[in-house]
Amino acid sequence: MIILVFCGKPVSYVIQPPSASDNLSLLLAGLLGFLAQYGINKGGMMANTTKVSLVRNIDVLVAFLFQIFMFHEVPTIIQVIGSVVLLFSTVLVVIWKNDSKS
Fold first, then answer.
1. How many whole angstroms separate alpha carbon 41 and alpha carbon 26?
2. Among 24-28, 48-52, 86-90, 93-97, the range of highest mean pLDDT
3. Three-state secondary structure readout of the chain
4. What confidence score (pLDDT) does residue 29 get?
5. d(CA 51, CA 63)
6. Are 86 and 60 in contact (CB under 8 A)?
């Protein structure tokens, strides 16, 4: 048992060890995350890096959609401005790299 003090009052929690299904879920999540990261890195090595960076920034859009539709949280204006700056700068780098090659 763990006893914590919260706002001056002791609060106790009983921590139970994880079950076998919890351990299996954590193991599979780690393994699949590793394989996904490995695939992303190998794909990034094979392709043009400027185009890969542009495609990787789609993660921002997917994260916003996930946040809105799954968690019902609307992004703040600061988050939207930050993502627009990030995407705009990446597009500028891709355009600049393509112009310098020709």
1. 22
2. 24-28
3. CEEEEECCEEEEECCCCCCHHHHHHHHHHHHHHHHHHHHHHHHHHHCCHHHHHHHHCHHHHHHHHHHHHHHCCCCCHHHHHHHHHHHHHHHHHHHHHHHHHC
4. 96
5. 20
6. yes
The pair of structure tokens assigned to 65 is 């959609």
- How many secondary structure helices (H) and strands (E) does the chain include? 4, 2
pLDDT at 12: 66
Amino acid at 78: I
Structure tokens at 4: 């914590």
What type of residue sits at position 62? V
Separation between Cα atoms, residue 35 and residue 40, nearest integer Å: 9
Name the amino acid, one letter, at 18.
P
Task: Say what the pTM is.
Answer: 0.55
Residue 7 backbone class (left: φ over 0; alpha: ψ -120 to 50; beta: rest): left
